[in-house]
């Protein structure tokens, strides 16, 4: 199922790239004028023109093109292809916290788990059933919590 989802996602991303390329190419064309030609300049973005808008000229000029600048910007690189990530996070180092959440009308306890050789940003909330060696780890976790409370 995951393979099929990845295939569908990659097809959709390919179609999206093609669609965006067509839209970009349609609206961002290289100018077709050369140096030395005469051109008119649009007054749409001029803020210093006075009088009613409908009485203003739409274009002013004619101006000689002295030098062309501002070539089309390079297209940004496309994102890398989707790489399948392993679902096995590793072995459990310790349990950090516990919380109760309500799923399907029932209270369930979840535990924040830190994995060996992983940083804190990789911590995950897992249910009791998903913990490897769950009974042993849970007993140690609750014993350490009781010990912390008794020392306070």
Automatic annotation (TrEMBL):
Organism field: Austropuccinia psidii MF-1
InterPro entries: Chromo-like_dom_sf
Superkingdom of origin organism: Eukaryota
Protein name: Chromo domain-containing protein
């Amino acid at each position: 199922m995951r393979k099929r989802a990845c295939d569908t996602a990659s097809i959709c991303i390919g179609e999206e790239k093609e669609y965006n390329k067509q839209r970009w190419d349609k609206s961002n064309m290289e100018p077709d004028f050369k140096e030395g030609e005469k051109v008119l300049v649009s007054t749409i973005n001029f803020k210093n023109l006075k009088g009613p808008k409908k009485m203003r000229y739409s274009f002013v000029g004619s101006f000689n093109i002295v030098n062309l600048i501002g070539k089309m910007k390079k297209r940004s690189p496309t994102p890398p292809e989707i790489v399948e990530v392993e679902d096995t996070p590793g072995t459990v180092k310790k349990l950090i916290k516990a919380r109760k959440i309500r799923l399907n009308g029932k209270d369930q306890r979840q535990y924040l788990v830190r994995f060996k050789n992983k940083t804190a940003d990789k911590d995950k909330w897992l249910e009791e059933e998903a913990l490897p060696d769950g009974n042993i780890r849970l007993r140690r976790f609750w014993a350490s919590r009781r010990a912390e409370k008794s020392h306070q």
